[in-house]
Batch of 2 targets.
Target 1
Amino acid sequence: MRRADEGMGFLLRYENVAWYEDGMVRILDRRIYPVKIEYVICRTHGEVAQAIADMVTQSGGPYTAAAMGMALAAYEAGDMAGDQLISYMENAAYTLSHARPTTVTKMVQIVNRALELVREQAGLGKCARELVEPLQNYAFQYINNNYLKYEKIGSYLADRIPQGGTILTQCFAETIIGTLIRECHKRNNDIKMICAETRPYFQGARLTASVACDMGVDVAVITDNMPGFIMKEKRVDVFTSAADVITMDGYVVNKVGTFQIALAAAYHNIPYFVTGTPNPAHQTIDSVKIEYRDPKLVMESMGTKVTMDGVNAYYPAFDITPPKLCNGVVTDFGVFSPYCLGEYLKAPKGI
């Protein structure tokens, strides 16, 4: 089988996202990359869940980590079989899928597919250790198929970028960044990228910009308060981001800061295209819970405190961009209006 990470930057190679092997899950620590290249080693599925909660991996990484965590849970379960095994794996699935509140719905889908395999094999009398390899294979198939899906999305997004165009990004759209760049290379489109830094974890500066640089793109980083000015000054052609949730009524829930960039893009008549899949579990924006994280992270920069004692902070991890600021939702089935996302669910395969 062709590995869909072929030609991707270091950060997007499967073994550098999350990887189960020999009774452990190894996760590249994206909190410190590229300043340091270190891996967090998880020896229990609980440690995988904690790594997800602690932002060791971000963007699409937590989903792969959860899938790999199910293989680790089976390794932990050892000789368990039957109902005992199923109960243990159900608890592991819950722990992994609920590591971060905003992404629970999609996480549940991923671990539930692993649970289907567990129930099937347990019904055939298999014990836990016999399920480790099939679950690791499932996790591999998950990430590989996800990359193949994003190859289509990358192609559709590339259609929206003029020759020699400049793209402004927010946070780290992970696979879409790699597939978009790879597709532009195929088309001999010498794009440029500008990455908003994305505090407090600096995903744009450390992750998006690193992948772009790895893959030979002319890339520059700006601070989070520069997009409105830079859009006009550097003649940005397209603003794009991924999304943690795209609701069926067209709202985009993504890394905090996306909304204000979308506002500036609309002012400058620059199109904003979000990449991802509309989620039927979220029919309206009212069903989304915005996660607040440790406010101390806002009062420091890469571990260095920058505020006086007694100063407080807020840290909403995400914000909400309304459909009127989004020019299109780029999916594996094509580009859809944020006002017509029901059409995505009706789209035939291969549209």
Note: Residues 40 and 350 are 38 Å apart (CA to CA).
Target 2
Amino acid sequence: MRQADLIALLAQWLKSQRAVAGAFLGGSFGRGDADDYSDVDIYVVTAESAQIQTVANALADGLDRVTSILFSKTLPNARTINAITTEWLRFDLTVVSPPELAFLAKSELEPLFDRSGALETIRHSDQQPPTPTPDHLLDIVNEFIRVLGLTVVVKGRDDVVVAQNGVELLRGMLIRVMVMENRPQCRRGVLALRQDLTTDQFTVLAALPPLQANWPSIFARTTAISREFLPRARRLAAELGATWPEEFERVTRAHLDKQIGQAGLIPTRCEP
């Protein structure tokens, strides 16, 4: 079975449900940039707003009548069903009311069927993606500095395993800032991250020193990540009008130097 076959089966099944007024492809299929590895995201529109939970429960109970299901679960929001078929095709069904559908971008939806004309209620198709806010950036910056400071704790306990986890948290924050730099036009899943990064950014990430379970490796990778993160985040802060946490950075650098002789984990501003 291919993704198109799965979509056709799901559309036919959903159309047979009387409480379902419409179904729309979202995600990469809705935008038209799906590939052979994309999951299938479908927004299921209820006929009545009060039917969301009833419809979600009925869909969860009826999946096996559509195709062979290897795994499924209802996410904590209680309205998204995440499933994997026995051929390892992935799909999500998210149940929404007609008013909720109106807050999605028309350009990112592809109707499978629309009995109530819900697509015409969407007024946000020309809405531009939101600009990152100073607070959003500063949340990342402050967390980056905080995690750097915790190097003292894990080094003092000689816990290289926890230190490795911390380094990868820092790498994740570098990626988030890189994506913010690019102002992506739409929100993609983590498995499609490469589409949100430039070639240069991808090269930088691929060139980071390897992470091994020893302190020289941990310090080398941490320093390399910091050398990329801090200048990028500072430039972005200036663009967004965010006030850089100078004192937090200065005191943390001094703390690292005093406790473990690693002030270099936070490069100074004049360093590239």
Note: The radius of gyration is 23 Å.
